[in-house]
Amino acid sequence: xxxxxxxxxTYWQNGMPTRxxxxxxxxxxxxxxxxxxxxxxxxxxxxxxxxGRSIRFTKRYLxxxxxxxxxxxxxxxxxxxxxxxxxxxxxxxxxxEAHRSSTDLLAELKNRLEQQVPTAAGSLSxxxxxxx
Length: 132
Prior knowledge:
- By secondary structure, this protein is an alpha+beta fold.
- The protein has two domains: 5-101, Lipocalin, CATH 2.40.128.120; 102-132.
- The protein has one helix and eight strands.
- The chain has one helix spanning 103-131, and strands spanning 5-13, 16-27, 30-37, 43-51, 54-61, 69-75, 81-88, 92-100.
- The chain has an eight-stranded antiparallel β-barrel with strand order 1-2-3-4-5-6-7-8.
- A hairpin with a 5-residue loop joins β6 and β7 (81-88).
- The chain is globular.
């Protein structure tokens, strides 16, 4: 199961949701990447592991907080969503969830459209030259 790619998610702290965007890079069982929170906390680096459908990683913010946040969770069978719990030792904890971003789908659609452009332009120029 490979979770590499862009994910959109939410974590809850004291009942308040915070949205985030994560980019994961998986090599074997090793996991790395970054997360950008939609809050003052900003960007964080991620390191961890994936074993089967289990995921564990530590998130460390680059500028706002040196305290590591430990995430653990379960990846859905289709590998398109995951959910679990996070904790900051002795300080706070909560739940989180993430879903694969449609950004990858949009990039795929764009690539398909770009591949069709030469065909469409070729038939258009052929039509123009025939009418001249």
